[in-house]
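Sequence of Tyrosine aminotransferase (Myripristis murdjan).
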Amino acid sequence: MDSKSYVVQMNGSAVHGKNAVNAKSLNGTAVNGKAVNGKSVHHVSVNGSIYPAKAKSRRQRWDVKASEMANNTLNPIRAIVDGMKLTPNPDKPMIALSIGDPTVFGNLPTDDTVLQAMKDAIDSHKYNGYSPSIGYQKSREAVANFYSCPEAPLEAKDVILTSGCSQAIDLAISALCNPGDNILAPCPGFSLYKTVAVSMGIEVKLYNLLPEKSWEIDLQHLESLIDEKTSCMVITNPSNPCGSVYSKEHLQSILKVASRHCVPVLADEIYGDMVFPGCSFHSLASLSSDVPILSCGGLAKRWLVPGWRMGWILIHDRNNVFGSEIRQALVKLSQRILGPCTIIQGALESILNNTPQSFYQSNINFLKSSAELCFNELSTVPGLTPIMPSGAMYIMVGIDIDHFPDFSGDVDFTERLVTEQSVFCLPASAFEYANFFRIVVTVPEEMMVEACARIREFCQRHYRPRSRDSNELDQ
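Predicted 3D structure, token representation.
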């Protein structure tokens, strides 16, 4: 028999070809492993193979383009930094105060118990295969037990393990939002929220933080942004880039807004418990009786292992608002990359339960001391207004740009700081906030002292006592 193709309309109404094929016999059967039900037209060879009908290709040349999602993906930090002219002063060694990685300078190693947990997991040979996409049951139980409290109880089913906190944020936004929706995010705030949302066609509405109130949320502004398309509000506490830690009362006021408008919360709490002595961290879920919350966290910062990429989502939904739908959405989305590293999952229970409190306290004491040093040094520099943080790893410094007529804004200011003094601070324009810059306080003490001295020298050189407007009036 020859291998010529015959067109068969699969509703059984038409058969073409020299040799008639019984369309009825094909209806409801699978030929060569493929179902042939339906009304579509297929080419069927007489030897029983089925091939989809092919339209003639119209392409005359290669024309491969990036997807819209890729083209819509933009990290504001990279957009700012990549466009800067960063040529350090060759006579001064570079001091980078811009990278939120506590491991860069080697002065903040993780604890030996954390390393031993990893070694034990490797030596056990139990964690070399695939895990469930949301993580091993035992590892999720460990996270649930570590973060559970009477006010916000957790079980393993409430935990999704992720490849770092960044993936946790990505999954949470993806599960809660559709193209055309909007989310509310802080300004200044971590750039990833916008990067993820905009790539998926989700609008980002930025609500103001108030520097004069230690970066508390402008609740009136936050509430004014909510509409019928608002699918979640992002609350970052403690804050990157501000280093702020919200009081219990302020968090309760935020939750009242969410409750009043029935808007779920994405709580970015990667810096949870990294607060300075005298301050207290309260998880949002521990203060809420009705607002559904997806809390995102991970090992990166508190355990000083950002490269290990272990994060999680804690699902707080005591009134079953999310129900099974959002939980299933998170599971389905997690299946896209089949879960985080299994070796770290194997070490997770030991890391959480055996890391000594002295390790956490030592790091907190160092960060506070470094932040205080930076704050005290820069508070006396004309034209600068540092805002003392209460936690995390950052301090934000305001620039009275009218006193620096040589510069057009924070990007120009920080760019020239690199050129003249080889000190790199991240301009707050990367966080969509003008005329501030962020300093990372994880650097060794002697390096912080040197950096502050160079910043002082730079400002003294460019500072003008009167504003630009006053100078122009005098001319």
